[in-house]
Amino acid sequence: MSRLAGGLRAALTPARAAAIARRVIAVGEALATVCAAARVLGDERVVLAEALGRVAAADVVSARAVPAAPNSAMDGFAVRHADLASVPARLRVVAIEPAGSVVDTPVEPGTAVKLFTGSVIPRGADTVVKVEDTEERDGTVVVRAAPAPGANVRPAGEDVRPGQVVVGSGTVIGPADLGVAASIGCGTLAVHRRPRVAILPTGAELVEVDQTPGPGQVVNSNAYSLAAAAREAGAEPLVLPIVRDHAADIRAGLARALEADVVLTSGGVSVGELDLVKDALAAAGVERVFWQVAQKPGRPLVFGRRGERLVFGLPGNPVSALVCFYLYVRPVLRRMQGHRRLHLPVVHAVLAAPARKAKGLTEFLRVRLEETGDGPVATPLAAQGSGVLSALGGGAALLVGPLELTELPAGGRFPVIVLGEATLAREAPPF
Ligand code: AMP
Ligand code: MG
Hints:
Elements lengths: L1 H6 L6 H9 L4 H11 L5 E5 L12 E2 L9 E2 L3 E4 L9 E9 L13 E5 L11 E4 L3 E4 L2 E4 L9 E2 L10 E3 L7 H9 L4 E5 L3 E6 L4 E2 L10 E2 L2 H11 L3 E4 L7 H11 L4 E5 L10 H7 L3 E5 L3 E2 L5 E5 L2 E6 L3 H19 L9 E6 L3 E2 L5 E11 L2 E6 L16 E5 L5 E2 L4 E5 L14
Helix pairs in contact: 3-8, 5-8, 6-7
The chain binds adenosine monophosphate and magnesium ion.
């Protein structure tokens, strides 16, 4: 009790409420502000197996040609095209060259070397006749059809020339980039560092997932959803122990959290008497950039900075916390990793049923998004409460209800933020 009493503060007087209201900023301004505050982190070298999805921090320049020497695109026979002036043409087979070996025997007029896909083209040959167009008999080969000069020969450097940039700085490294890097003998890549994200759950009512909540207690689910969202955004989450609604506890938690690049607190940022996170942030030297965004859910969002470290005071309501993460934290984490695409994909969808929304706030309505013959259709989910986290799972998307409207008419078109690619388009092979 005495610990709680230590945290009590002045009630929400009209004057205090007015001061709070003046600070409410619009969603666009909030997003621009957080993105502008994020700096691209420095780089580190990682082995190829660790590099998937990371952003290249430097150009990768090849010292080699790939392939190193001209080689065959087919199983067949290396020949001199001049020998095929009239077909059928009979040539003497002077050597066999399986892939991985190189024969010294040159292809002289009237001769051929039998080879396989990937075999180096022997000296003297300029064309490969594919095996299907030949007949091999008694040490000779009969070429039935002449291909074009140079056919089936892959020139040296066809894939990569010496000096070529094979992975440009800023590339989001995908499987093909990894394969190309390997093909030039480059076993490590310089990539931007992943941000370390400390997650600090606050709330005297919270218990851990393996505890049975007593009266008035809830499981600390935000630690799981936020850590997962941070990992999905490419960051390295570190979940800190729950801290109670007590100024000293929150300050101690923050001291640890501020070792990370980004701090996410959960809970305690509203206007209640036990919402102590804002003061604790100030006490920890975190400069407040904004508090309160004209949005629902997530209005009490706090954003601050201490040097290069960025702090998001997320509301405790599970939907609010995760929606604020998707809207503001995710782009910041992506910018820090060097990504150029920061935001979730947006589609424009037709609203299937009318929906009411809060006046003067941009509202993110949970919808089910479906592709129809006429384009995407969004159906509002029945439960829109900021505590109804189950309505945000299962492929839900966020329809953006404009600030000025109070009713969204059925048939109206609105932007919808796609949270998972599964909702973006119907799964159908394109052939
Ligand atoms: P607060 O923002 O602290 O006022 O909390 C708002 C609501 O979110 C309350 O019902 C809390 O119990 C709930 N809440 C706060 N933190 C968490 C958490 N880490 N996990 C799940 N629910 C939470
Ligand atoms: Mg709380």
